[in-house]
Amino acid sequence: MINKLVEKIKKTKAPIVVGLDPMLSYIPQHVQEKAFAEYGETLEGAAEAIWQFNKEIVDKTYDLIPAVKPQIAMYEQFGVPGIAAFKKTVDYCKSKDLVVIGDIKRGDIAYAVGHLGKVKVGSKEYVPFDEDFATVNPYLGSDGVNPFADVCKEQKKGLFILVKTSNPSSGEFQDRIIDGRPLYEHVGEKVAQWGAECMVISAPLSERHTRRWEKSSERSCRNHIFSFRGTARRAAAEKILFISLMRTDLERS
């Protein structure tokens, strides 16, 4: 799956992923009004507005970008109808041959991997959410990652593993010095050990941080893709391979 992502980046010449993180305040008034006219000012109406907005974004960008990244919590806020909108969005993006990164940030033991894998119902098997990648929080250790890695290898999927996150308080734990180095560096090393075939490191760091890891052969991350949150302008300036292009970034770039 990593190879597909890299090929899509090369083909489109666009090292970006479009975040589909819906909030009603993002959605044009006329789209909301049309959805509410059909479903009322209900969770179903909100979910319909989200779906129509997502569809319009995808229709306008699918031939320009390699990937999209729907953030599931933004859909869960609208309950079951929101989850249905998430599913419709994933399926529609797949129909446009986009790589779909399910931003689910899971981190749990084996029974929790159903979101990425198959589920058996009687004699039949289903794939409820057919994302190509999922985001995973590794801070439970190997127990919270290995089940996802097993699913990835079986189904040829991929993972984005959180190493150093961009939220303001992330340093409270991730920057703590352990054996002379920040905790996130130890996590990055462990992710590399888990295997580059399925793993992708997600780290909103500067290029300086990636070079720091690459300088040490035993801590090399050269076989991984780094995902950076930032603007298109920053990506061009720092030659970043892969960034997350958010709504605010579109406004600022």
Describe this structure in words.
Strands 1-2-3-6-7-10-11-12 form an eight-stranded parallel barrel, surrounded by four helices. It is globular and about 60 Å long. By secondary structure, it is α/β, with parallel strands linked by helices. It contains eleven helices and twelve strands. The chain starts with a helix and ends with a helix.
Layout: helices, strands, pairs:
Blueprint: H1 2-12, E1 16-20, H2 29-39, H3 43-61, E2 67-70, H4 72-76, H5 79-95, E3 99-106, E4 119-121, E5 124-126, E6 133-136, H6 146-155, E7 158-162, H7 171-174, E8 177-178, E9 181-182, H8 183-194, E10 199-202, H9 207-214, E11 226-229, H10 232-238, E12 243-245, H11 247-252
Parallel strand pairs: 1-2, 1-12, 2-3, 3-6, 6-7, 7-10, 10-11, 11-12
Antiparallel strand pairs: 4-5, 8-9
Helix pairs in contact: 2-3, 3-5
Short account of what is shown:
The protein has 253 residues and is α/β, with parallel strands linked by helices. The protein has helices spanning 2-12, 29-39, 43-61, 72-76, 79-95, 146-155, 171-174, 183-194, 207-214, 232-238, 247-252, and strands at residues 16-20, 67-70, 99-106, 119-121, 124-126, 133-136, 158-162, 177-178, 181-182, 199-202, 226-229, 243-245. It has an eight-stranded parallel beta barrel, surrounded by four helices.
